[in-house]
Amino acid sequence: MDLSRKPRLQHLDMLRGLCALGVVISHLRALLVVPYAEAARHGLFDKLLFALGGLGHECVIAFFALSGFLVGGSTLAAMRAGRFSLADYGVARLSRLWTVLVPALALTALWDALGALLGPAGAYQGALAAILESGPTAREPATHSLVTLLGNLLFLQTIETPVFGSNRPLWSLANEAWYYLVFPLLAFTFFHRAPIMRALCAAAGALALALLPGELALLGLPWLAGALAADNPARPSLARALAGALATLAALGVSHMSRTVLGDIALGCAIAFWLRDLAAFPSIGGLYAAAAHGVSEISYTLYAVHFPLLLMLWFWLLAPARSQPGLAVLGQMAILMAVALIYAAAVWFLFERRTDVVRGWLLRRLRAPRGAPVVSRCAGVETNPGDRQSRAERNAAF
User: Fold this and answer.
1) Distance between CA atoms of 324 and 332, rounded to whole angstroms?
2) Model's pTM, two decimal places?
3) How crowded is residue 161: how many other Cβ atoms within 10 Å of its Cβ?
4) pLDDT in tens, 231-270
């Protein structure tokens, strides 16, 4: 599946990066600032802080639409051209997810162990759940069992096991992995040449959907909408882009107020079809380009690793205190945001940036005849130039 010809989609990079930052801001607000009902004042600035700091879930819904647009759209294009390889697709998706997930799970265990040692007693069993909007509760304590670890590695969190440890954001990776699996099966129903294979793929996809939790399956609709939007590209249109932005803002308000699956679906679908116009507009240079590239490049790692570290620091240094909105708490948020970004950049440098190397290594072993030596990339040989992915598609996890 040759996806190497797709250019970098700068405005989607920026949206992706802003969504990752939005998730971190949401967690920082929950850790550091008292709830809105306990705030001593409710001025415009305070309302803005609570509004922007309460959009973490909506940012994840945007990730689903973005992933469908990038991964699903590329998959449909490859199937139409008759060059889709299910084996290559599987290796690409698993290497993308696991290259970040495996170190994220190890780091979660490390930060949780330090937090249990340095923080309040019982913090990871839900002792502070009454004052903490995010984090372990008595009903859902941080669990570090081998079964939970394996369940998260197999993307069964929220399906058969809880998320591993305190790393609550990992819930969405189960959604992402199952959408990756189900989508090509259902798409083969329309694109596979053999009727029997079309029927088998349709049955397998339908069975997988039937076995998944209802909410997880329904939240696949924004992912599907993203794929369909990418399959119907649009010419740049400022009027349509503005209409899409307004529709997205309206759906965002509905989703944020209703907090229902239907609201999430409406938001995700609105974003999905707005993405066509964002992708079609020409790139911008300078600082915008650098910021879009930089924050998008580390966004998956930032999403997957930030929360256990921030929770440990709060348990150790600040718990159980939280602050009224104001300049002092904004300073705390800025410092911890900087810590999270530096930490995520370091983890990205060590692991995520090697995703293509891991993928190439797996593909060479998959394609090598049994008993034949595998040529290393170090020798300057590639298995196939078409195996290279565009960064936009490669970065489409969540």
Assistant:
1) 12
2) 0.90
3) 18
4) 887 777 778 888 888 888 888 888 888 889 999 999 999 9
